[in-house]
Amino acid sequence: MRQRNGSRASRPGGARRGGRAAALGGALAVALAALGGCSEGAPPVPPARIPEPYHLNRYEQSFGYSQAVKIGRTVYISATVAVDADGQLVGPGDMAAQLDAVYANLGATLKAEGGGFAQVVMERIYTTDMEALLKVADRRLKSYPEGQRPATTWVEVRRLVDPGFLVAVEAVAELP
Question: Would you call 8 helix, strand, or coil by DSSP?
């Protein structure tokens, strides 16, 4: 903007037209150049999260699944049922005995993965008889430290993989 006498008029704040934008653009270019100089190439690639399967019993591999898979510090545990080391049903028709066997098997899996019930953050309980499960459900609380109960979902289903199974529990644990 020119005044009548030919000199430049100043804008409020002393900036000329385009001066403030040019200053910001220059500052941005300097900042980007500085950031570019600090970087030594692309950021490092995080380590691969490789699944590590675990088998509690011998029959699992032939049946086509893993009892648990660990990826990083997270352990995903398949629905655990009331079986012994040979895959034989424990406590046929007895919900309390099956629930105890399920939590014993869960504990063995957690221990093998370097954890315990304190690391379980989620469990899903499947049962073919919700009324019978509710009568003995307090048995599961013995496994967890007081005040450290996982998020839990209870689901009644028509049947589990073996018609003799009354209950199955799957879990997710976050290891220290």
Answer: strand
Provide DSSP, the chain.
Answer: -B-TTSPBPPPGGGPPTTHHHHHHHHHHHHHHHHHHHH--SSPPPPPP---EEE-SSTHHHHHT--SEEEETTEEEEEEE-SB-TTS-BSSTT-HHHHHHHHHHHHHHHHHHTT--GGGEEEEEEEES-HHHHHHHGGGGGGGSPTT-PPEEEEEE-S--SSTT--EEEEEEEE--
Residue 21 and residue 97 in one domain:
no
Q: Structure pTM? A: 0.70
CATH of the domain at 94: 3.30.1330.40
Whether residue 92 is found in the same domain as residue 143: yes
Same domain assignment for residues 71 and 30? no
Q: For residues 116 and 113, give the distance between their C-alpha atoms in angstroms, rounded to a whole number.
A: 8
Per residue in 66-113, pLDDT tens?
A: 888 999 999 999 999 999 988 899 999 999 999 999 999 999 999 999
> Quick one: 66 and 108 in the same domain?
yes
